[in-house]
Amino acid sequence: MLIGKPNDIPPSEITPERDYMNRRAFMAEAGKLGLVGAVAPGLLGGGETGRGRVAPGPPGQEELTPYEDVTRYNNFYEFGTGKEDPYRNSGDFNPRPWTIEVAGHCAKPGVFDLDDFLQPHALEDRVYRLRCVEAWSMVIPWRGFPLNRVIARAEPTSAAKYVAFTTVVRPSEMPGQRSRILDWPYREGLRMDEAMHPLTLFTTGLYGRDLPNQNGAPLRLVVPWKYGFKSIKSIVRIDLVEEMPYTTWSAMAPNEYGFFANVNPEVDHPRWSQARERRIGEFRKRPTLMFNGYGNQVSPMYADLDLRRWY
């Protein structure tokens, strides 16, 4: 399924929310669209939950976080520091028109209209856990495509060791940017092998719908084995760089937020434990999984890295 203009995708080509909430219906529809093979192995395995929701991969039975919670409980400081502020304060944000600049050590830099930027990429549906550093988590059905396709399209040179990302600055539409709570614009980065990993997703939607403003419209990153602040939202610039890039939280509070930000229950935040987490919608906390449960897929990238030092 190719993306033309995201707002013009026929309804028949979008997996509806009701199908996400029923595993058999979702898998049947995904098979029609050729999406089953595109979903990362193990992410949809594990059987059905008691209420028939999708149960992604090990450790077993997991329910999707309801759409209302996914879209009303967010960290997006551009719209405020409270968890409900992004939902309340993002109504004036306009995600169209939208351009993305690709620059740095690559053969094909440029400034692209979002629709032209997305057009070569096939749409995929993936269910990922999203784990935040404040010890809460969600399970979300994302719509997007692997970031490695964008990087390959830019034709990086051998000097490109890292990928840096920048969020839009629009204080007239993003009231949180009128304060000095962060050093705007918000910036994040990945090592090249992390950016090229097939689990790293450029995301355009969730629950079969376009991304809401409060969730990072129109384009955000999802890196499921890292804490949520690495999954930068409303991206306007991508730089392929040689040195480890400046990243907002790592620069502002380096003793609390490391560059790698891999989910690690053995490394606590200075102000709270990371050993357990609360899944939104649940009362009891559960043990935090190393690499957020994606260790089999991503741990080889860090085999020679001291994860207590390089947190």
Give a summary of the structure in a few sentences.
With 311 residues, the chain is α+β, with helices and mostly antiparallel strands. Helices cover 17% and strands 21% of the residues. The protein is built from nine helices and twelve strands.
For the record, the CATH class is Alpha Beta
Largest sheet: 7 strands, mixed
Q: Number of helical segments?
A: 9
- Would you identify the CATH architecture? Alpha-Beta Complex
Shape: globular
Poorly predicted spans: 1-16, 22-60
Q: What structural class results from the helix and strand content?
A: alpha+beta
The fourth-level CATH homologous superfamily is Oxidoreductase, molybdopterin-binding domain
Tell me the domain tally.
1
Query: What name does CATH use for the topology?
Result: Sulfite Oxidase, Chain A, domain 2
Order of helices and strands: HHHHEEHEEHEEHEEEEHEEH
Number of strands: 12
Proportion of residues in helical segments: 10-25%
Q: In percent terms, what proportion of residues is strand?
A: 15-25%
The rounded distance between the terminal residues' Cα atoms is 38 Å
Radius of gyration: 18 Å
Average predicted confidence as pLDDT: 85
